[in-house]
Amino acid sequence: MTERIFFEQDEIKITSARAIFGEHTHVMNAITAVRYVELKPDRKWPMFLMIFGVFCVLTTTVIGAVWWSLQKTKHVVLLSSSSGEICAMVAKDESLAKRVVEAINEAIIARSGQRRNE
Fold this sequence. Notes:
single chain; 118 residues; alpha+beta; 3 helices; elongated
């Protein structure tokens, strides 16, 4: 059986047999599900700092605003198997994370189709 590639970019490679994230390789046969999660940053402290800056000094408002703008949403790919759930990757690029999830889903579907044909 040849290994079909569903996705490949930088250190991420999703095939019909494996999901590779840098140095970590996960066997597709062990993966039962995949999902996408968005981790929004906790912005209460930058908000507090900006409000405090209005009452104190313009400088603290600028620091709070810069801090706020530097915080980015993280996009997470979680893999589920019979042994639990594992974080496979965290990316700042939403499109990349969603394409990886899609590729793993395609690989899971292809794997189940091959089992029926065997």
